């Protein structure tokens, strides 16, 4: 159950990906501007290893990287049975080191933690992220082009593998002495229920719950689910996250179509992360005042459900709508400034 004693008070953080190239400068900027909940950045333009699917594949069985396509496939050469047996031996022994994320795959994670340690950076929280099990399984295919979503044996292994990799990350982040937050990034669930999503609601809840419950049972982390498009938000709430992160700039009205589920989630101590700064549709003309007005409309709807302003403030985080990795560096800096200034305005 979410912790009702937490107070986020519109703290700002980001989703993960950035368009920048300088690792140390980016990490220092993050620590300077996001004093409550800094995050480790994914430098998606530096290396294919930082693609959100490939980045979390080390230690998982039967994985083969196709560098030119920035994709993962199930290896033809591996012995499936023996690789799965070896995988489960590491998993059941809870050998998190076997599932570590290497520095080549996540230099932002290591650099951020090193700066925190060297400079004795004070912040109550630290945020990480991992690809969610549904998005990962949908993206990884076998030699015939079929996704792991349709292979129950591999789907179970990949889901458990992502769970223990996330545990390694939580333990690594916790070495900073801060309260850890980890988001499961699930862009595949955008538009859930359309003809393009070939997975049932109960299956989604089961996969997400597997990772969330594993992390909650083995650590003291907060777990969020990020989806940057429209989806079934009652399904997301049912999976049991502490934090739900949605695109509040583009899909506010759709999110608010679930008053009973969202109100119940908030009253039980859940937190909403408002993805209010646009990313894919960023124009540069956005202002703090415009974004503030958009948020106020959403807040007023929620107040009408019986949630008081003080509770909503405690249970709210601000983020961009999605990762900033597809933006130009100039646009990302502008969006980052909007986010920070909006957070400051809401705290007054």
Give a short summary of the structure:
The protein has 348 residues and is α/β, with parallel strands linked by helices. The chain is built from 12 helices and 11 strands. The chain has one domain (11-347): TIM Barrel.
Structure in words:
The protein is of the alpha/beta class. The chain has a single domain, classed as TIM Barrel (Alpha-Beta Barrel), CATH 3.20.20.210. The chain is 42% helix and 14% strand. The protein has twelve helices and eleven strands. Strands 1-11-10-9-8-7-6 form a seven-stranded parallel beta sheet. A two-stranded parallel ribbon has the order 2-3. Strands 4-5 form a two-stranded antiparallel sheet. β2, α1 and β3 form a beta-alpha-beta unit. α4 packs across α5. It is globular and about 60 Å long.
| Strand runs, count | 11
Tell me the number of helical segments per DSSP (H or I, 4 or more residues long).
12
* Annotated CATH topology: TIM Barrel
Structure class:
alpha/beta
- Average pLDDT figure: 95
Strand content: 5-15%
Can you tell me the CATH architecture?
A: Alpha-Beta Barrel
Label the overall shape: globular
Helix content: 40-55%
Main-sheet strand order equals 1-11-10-9-8-7-6
* Separation of the first and last Cα atoms: 30 Å
How many domains make up the 3D coordinates? Answer: 1
Low-pLDDT parts are none
Q: What profile does the largest beta sheet have? A: 7 strands, parallel
Order of helices and strands: EEHEEEHHEHHEHEHEHHEHHEH
Report the top-level CATH class: Alpha Beta
The value of Rg in angstroms is: 19 Å
